[in-house]
Amino acid sequence: MNNNVKQKINRILVPVDFSGYSLNACYFAMHLASRTGAGLRLFHAFFNPMIDAMAFPDAFTYQSNMAEIFRELEENSKKEMKKFAKKLNKYAKIKDLKEVKVETGVVAGQPGEEIESIIGTYDPDFIVIGTRGHGERANEVLGSVAARVIDISGIPVLLVTRDAKLREEGDVRLLYATDFDDTDYQAIGSLSAIMSGYRLNIFCVHFETGPAKEDKEGKMAEMKNKLIENEKVMSIECHNIRSDDIVTDLNRFVEANDIELIALTHKKRNIFYRLFNPSLAKKLLFQTKKPVFVFN
Questions:
Q1: Same-domain status, 68 and 199
Q2: In which domain, by residue range, is 273 found?
Q3: Domain count, the chain
Q4: Domain membership flag for residue 6
Q5: 3 has pLDDT over 70
Q6: What pLDDT is stored for residue 129 in this prediction?
Q7: Angle 158-142-291 (CA atoms, 0-180°, nearest 5)?
Q8: Spatial CA neighbour of 177 closest among 194, 163, 191
Q9: Could you tell me which residue, 214 or 75, shows the higher pLDDT?
Q10: What is the CATH number of the domain that holds 235?
Q11: Pair 74, 68: CB distance under 8 Å
Q12: How large is the average pLDDT for residues 59-88?
């Protein structure tokens, strides 16, 4: 395993918009925090109308109205966050989760920019985010915020849809889509730390989309031998699948093998690049209810 892999998870960041998607993302984060002993930070950014008001320096009345609207938006956001935190506390009691330290924060600004800022100050080990926000816009594939978080974070990001479920105890069956990159070992090592409260049954799958140029079976055998040394990995199966439609074949494999979690690495020209273009991402995230871990 890569010596740079972080073995202890201390902080989890969850950007929220108070939607059902955000709530389910928080449920995931609560379970992972309970098992790793990590702290949890809920974060919400609301629109700041004062930015637009500054474009009208002579319109004092306009700016005064905007200031009042700003105060109302800020107060409403704080109330929503308080209600949201209460729901999580109730959920933790129902599920008998070990006490989790939950912090909350509300700021004015653009969500993507503010999340980038808090990543720098809070220094989370990974991020959990719902993949669609309030309004359920069909044309928002990953959602601009989730897509930006993946691009800027440099740390693992767990994408959670509203219907995604995670086993609450025992073994977790996980599909890791590989392109045989050295970063695979670091990603799975990080995943083991994040999922330290679970035992992992890993299905390493390579989807061959072009003519075979090298010995994929040999690479799979090498990967299996390296990963079996990980104490959190209970079992490993390796599969090479010839595919003309990665998303369809991935979903078939997920259903046939009762997969609960999908993991990929974010690197251009690899599996993430092929899956997460607008058309394929929509199919993957809207045709599967499974959570997706993206490792940078």
A1: no
A2: 171-295
A3: 2
A4: no
A5: no
A6: 92
A7: 35
A8: 191
A9: 75
A10: 3.40.50.620
A11: no
A12: 83
* More confident call, 53 vs 293: 293
In angstroms, rounded to a whole number, what is the distance separating the alpha carbons of residues 225 and 68? Answer: 63
Segment of 83-92, 148-157, 286-295 carrying the highest mean pLDDT: 83-92
Q: Domain for residue 166, yes or no?
A: no
Q: Which residues contact 223 (CB under 8 A, 6 or more apart)?
A: 178, 180, 184, 185, 204, 238
Q: Are 254 and 175 in contact (CB under 8 A)?
A: yes
User: Is residue 26 assigned to a domain?
Assistant: yes
Among 105, 125, 160, the domain boundary falls at 160
Residue 26 near residue 88 (C-beta atoms within 8 A): yes
Q: How far apart are the first and last CA of the chain?
A: 17
Residue with tokens 């609960």: 260
> What distance in Å separates the CA atoms of residue 132 and residue 17, rounded to the nearest whole number?
10
**Which strand (E) or helix (H) includes residue 7?**
none
Whether residue 215 sits in one domain with residue 115: no
Which range (86-95, 116-125, 175-184) has the least confidence?
Answer: 175-184
Query: Is 92 in the same domain as 146?
Result: yes
Mean pLDDT calculated for residue range 251-267: 88
